[in-house]
Amino acid sequence: MKLSRGEKVYVVALNILAVICGLVCLLPVLNLISKSLSSPKAVYNNWVIFWPVEFNTAGWSYIWVYTSYLRSLLNSVIITLSGTVISLVITILTSYALAHPKLKGRKLLTYLYVFAMVFSAGTLPMYFQLKSYNLLNTLWVLILPSLVSPYYTFVLKGGFESVPDSLEEAARIDGASYTRTLVSVILPVSKASIATIVIFTAVAYWNRYFDALLYITKQQLKPLSLLLYEVIKLANIEQTADEIYGQGLSQEIKSTSMVVMTILPMLAIYPFMQRYFVKGVMVGSVKG
Amino acid sequence: MSVVNRHRRSPWQRFVTYMSAHWELYLFLIPGLAVILMFKLMPMSKIVIAFKKFKPLKGIAKSPYVGFDNFKAIFADPEVWRVIRNTLEINLLQIAVCVPLPMLMAVMMNEVNCMPLKKSVQTMVYIPHFFTWVVVYSVFLNLFGTSGFVNTVIKALTGNSVLFFTNGGWFRVIRVLSAVWKGTGWSTIVYMSAISSIDAEIYEASIIDGASKIQQARRITIPCLIPTLVLMLTVRMGSVVSGGFDQVLAFYNPSVYETADILGTFIYRRGIGQADFSFATAVGLFESVVGLVFVLSSNFASRKLTGKDVW
Question: Which residue from A30, A46, A136, A150 puts its CA 20 to 30 A from B63's CA?
């Protein structure tokens, strides 16, 4: 197929535009990383662009030593792992049952989930309810309330419904129980939808900070996202005063170090996730 | 024989037979329902605070009922009206910008036919989606803050710096830009999959008719993506009241409360910050009800326009 000159210009322009879009997403982050690893003097004078100037790990050490970074990282890992696993089990069981034609009252149950999805009690009622369960200032309060996402339940239900009935019937005729059918027949063919849900759930658990801001006041229980919020938002108030040229660590280095150390675990597993999410999200998007 | 027998059985016997075969399905529902009951339905009982003059020391049960006084206070409060207007204005603006952009970007990515380049661009544009809003805020503060790159350029050109984070108007621009930065790349996935499902024959036919690449994009690709666009739009319309909370909480500061406040952040500050529990719960209930109306109407619209339920 031969392209006219106008078309060639069009294709080249779009290619360049695509590269620019990619760089717009990447370079600001690269700049943050470089700043966190540069000397205060270089940062103050705006010398740092995309590579550390006068390489310096003082900012990272500061965060490591003077904040509860490691403890918070551990909390976030615990919350994300246990939350995602429990949530996945519950979501799989619920979606399978809701997708099954033999279940009576499916319509009513679906409405219940829709209602739970579209109507929330609100911030304060939730706070008082959790308080009455004595869950405040425990890691459970960051795990339990968001275990069930009606939306992902519906996504997975859609995935299960698209599995050919004959597969399930064959297993049932062979005398397999529902549990057995689910585990050995349905799950293996639904990997893509499950991968979607795992990624979405894990990212949501990892990034959420508002619930922790409300429910957690003990320093050693704070997740990484909340520690980041506190370092960035609360420290900004006292900014500039101690920012004397070249002396000590500027707020900017502390903040950028905190940000970089927060996104590092995510960036580290990003290449492994990427394979799954593109395929999975497409499956999820079929249902909207 | 057996057919006759089945009809003779009592409802109880039929129930037992049915259950002995299908009990597992009901067992599967229990954990999910328990969570829904404990963390979605039970908290609704605490909405009663909105109809009381809640005193923390007395507890919820002993605080006196005041009927609709808190709601009267809401509608008499000019600040609430301002917050409602803000919420709708900013969220609608954000939707207007953030919904069509991914479609255009997907059309653009579709023209990148060098596979390694396409893959690396995709890798880069998906990353911001995985950042929490506070990280996005830091990225933007670093770029648009008083000593950031953008202000350095502006200063060199005009001699003045622009206060992007403390000027109400600019703050909205920052808010929309940050949403674009975080979400556009990721949202292209849906459109990319829609593009890949367009029948290749349509393109072949158009090439025979002498259509150029630009014409193909305008007359084939974009029209084929409109249903997806409509679906995405209706999904987003459902969050026009509740959307943007984590974002605003991460981005705003006291100097832009007047223009940046949305219902969620307002409730947080009044309820937790100033301990005005009953008032904030009442505003929250109002938010939930208005949000519900938006969700239901957007789902209705989706069903009419695309034949699909949002859920």
Answer: A136
